[in-house]
Inverse folding.
C-alpha cells in the first residue's frame, strides 16, 4: 500500500499514516506533514484571558511525537504539477526499489 502525504496532512491523517508506516504496512510518498497531532482545549482564566492547553500527544510507533514536528516520508515526491500517469508510475517504482521488500511484516495487534 502507498500513502500520499503532504504539508496539509494533519491530525487523524498524520496519526493514521504514522501508524501504517511505523508498522511497515504502507510506504509513504510525498512531502513533510503539518505536525498537528495533539488534543487541545481553550481554557478561560479568571482574569478574562485564556490559554491553549495541550493535554494529549499522539506518538508514532517508534515513540516520537508527531505534534509540532510532523514527519517526512522516506520517498519524497518529485513535483506537484507532474500528474501524468507515466511520472506517477516512475515515482512509485523508484520508491518501491528503495524499500526493503524482504522485511517480514508482523501481525497487527487488534
Amino acid at each position: 500500500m502507498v500513502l500520499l502525504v503532504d504539508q496539509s496532512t494533519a491530525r487523524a491523517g498524520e496519526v493514521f499514516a504514522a501508524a501504517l508506516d511505523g508498522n511497515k504496512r504502507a510506504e509513504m510518498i510525498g512531502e513533510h506533514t503539518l505536525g498537528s497531532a495533539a488534543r487541545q482545549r481553550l481554557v478561560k482564566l479568571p482574569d478574562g484571558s485564556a490559554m491553549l492547553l495541550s493535554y494529549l500527544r499522539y506518538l508514532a510507533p517508534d515513540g516520537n511525537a508527531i505534534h509540532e514536528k510532523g514527519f517526512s516520508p522516506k520517498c519524497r515526491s518529485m513535483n506537484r504539477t507532474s500528474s501524468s500517469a507515466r511520472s506517477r508510475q516512475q515515482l512509485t517504482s523508484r520508491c518501491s526499489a528503495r524499500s526493503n521488500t524482504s522485511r517480514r511484516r508482523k501481525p497487527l495487534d487488534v
Q: What stands out?
A: The helical segments are 12-22, 85-98. The chain has a mean pLDDT of 80.
